Structure formats: structure tokens, C-alpha cells
From TrEMBL, chains A, B:
Keyword Transcription: yes
Record's protein name: MarR family transcriptional regulator
All residue ranges annotated as the HTH marR-type domain in the record: 1-138
Keyword Transcription tagged: yes
Organism of derivation: Frigidibacter albus
An example Gene Ontology molecular-function term: DNA-binding transcription factor activity
Amino acid sequence: MTFDKTRSAGYLANHLARLFAQHLAAGIAPLGLAPAQFMALLELWREDGLTQAELCARLDVEQATMAGTLGRMARDGLIERRAHPADRRAQTVHLTDRARALEAPATEAARAVNARALAALPEAERAPFVASLHRITEEMRRRKP
Amino acid sequence: MTFDKTRSAGYLANHLARLFAQHLAAGIAPLGLAPAQFMALLELWREDGLTQAELCARLDVEQATMAGTLGRMARDGLIERRAHPADRRAQTVHLTDRARALEAPATEAARAVNARALAALPEAERAPFVASLHRITEEMRRRKP
DNA sequence: GCCACTTGCATAGCACGCTATTCAAGCCGT
DNA sequence: ACGGCTTGAATAGCGTGCTATGCAAGTGGC
């Protein structure tokens, strides 16, 4: 039996994620955003003034990755880093007005991508699919390689 | 209404793909393989002597991406490129013995990752989940951004 | 037969992921 | 108060994805 990629959850997850990233990138590029920046903004819109470490934990990415993303966001005028009031090692990350103004259009673009993607499934299968995605993701995250 | 990432198919697909990539990378690193190289091998194990363009089409990645992956694979002694017999622009990609020997252990590692991941779902939900993944992927691939 | 379009690859530049390393600052037990 | 572990962040190096270019070789129409 050869390995059938069209039935491999891992292969399909990779392919699907690339497709989502392409669609999302196209949707938010006009706003001057890249996908990873949008993810970081998602957290910052909920709660401003997080530290880099907190962002890492919430998005489950490595610290070095987040440092790069935040660097690009600062360069692009989306965030400002300020000294942490209580810990001189840490910095807090704050949204600029420009970033705050992007919340509505950016989340709208993301919602549109999700809607168009899920349209491929019969309505009754959408919620179970997303639930399964969530379930597997949480499990794999718990017991990392 | 704020955007809930834990219910966003796109967000979850990205997260899941990163987790799969980490698990797979850990599983095949001892073989000297990286995830994208494994994907290319998957096609070459089925049919040796493909051109770069054919590999791109089958894996749905851009030509420039494949050029990079094949370059690393040639560097690592996994493939050889030969002149195409009929088209002087093209090259055909051929497996080395080393790459051929990796088929069994590498596919086994990938299968193990899939199995462990799907173990998070009740048995009855696994097939529908993979089917949905496949369905959405195919649809999104058809009508690209 | 020639010029224009297409096609196969390489390359450069950038975004993101990861690991590994380094450094400063906080924390702790003795 | 000290020496040692932990923690927050930057940096370097690498793999993988993308777009955009550039060039050589094939193809077609006239």
C-alpha cells in the first residue's frame, strides 16, 4: 500500500493552510497586513499591552518567530513597544491608531475567507468539521512531539 | 462581536498544519528529511523521472518553491537531475538509492503522525473529518484567490 | 522563415516558522 | 548577599512558502 496523500490528514492540513494563507493574504494585503501580523493583531485587539511572551503563549508560536513578526509590525507602524512597568526585561506591545482602525476591515476579510471556504461543505457538516479541527489541534498542542 | 480564532477554520487550519509539520519534522529528521522534501518524495516514489513542472502541479506549490526544495534535495543526495530527452529546457528528476531506501521508514513515520493526531477524534468522526478536509481543499484549489 | 507568445527553470527578495545561542534581569535558597 | 536557575527578548541560520524577474527554448501564425 502506497501512502495516499489525498487521505492523509497531515498532507491535507498543510495544503489547506497554504490555501487559506493565500486567500487571506490576498484579502488583507490591501490593508498593508500579512497573515501573521493579522494573527498578532487578533490578540492585541482583544487586549492591548501584552508582552511578547504572552503573545507567544496565546498564538502558540515560538518567541523568535513572534520577535520577527513584531519587528515587522513596528517597522510598518502597527505597534509600539514600551518598557514594562514592573519588569525591566520585558516590553509591552501597544496598538497604534492605524492598527486600531484596521480591526473592522481585516476581521471582515478573514470572515469572508472562512465563509467562502466552508461553502464547499453542506451546511450540516460545517460545525462538526470546525469542531474536529479544534479538537485535534488542542490534543496535538497538549502533547507536542 | 469579536473574531473568535478558536472557531475560525482558517486559523485552526494554520495551527493544525504547524503542529503536523512539527510532529512530522521530528519523525523524519532522523532520516535526514525535511517535510517539503518528504512531499516531493511522495510523488517521486510513485513515479520517477518527473519534471519540476509536473511536481509543482501535483503538489500544488509554485515553481520557485519547488526549485528550492529540489535544490536542497540534490545537495543532500536525494535526487539527481538529468536532461530531458525531448525538451532541452526541461530536466527530469530521479531518485537516488538513498532516497529509494527511505520510502518505508518515512511513510511509516508519516502514518504514525496521522494516526496519533486522529486518535484525538472518536473513531466514527475520523473519516468524515478527512473527507471534509479533502473537499474544502479541492474547492479552494479550484477557485484560487 | 520570423516574430510573438508561451513554457521550464533559476534567482532575488520577502514573510514566517523553527532551533540554538546569547545577554540581561529577575528570583531563590542558603 | 551571593551564586545559580529561570525568564524575556534579540539574533543568526535554515527550510518553505510566495511574487516578480529574467532567460533560454519551444510553438504558432503570418
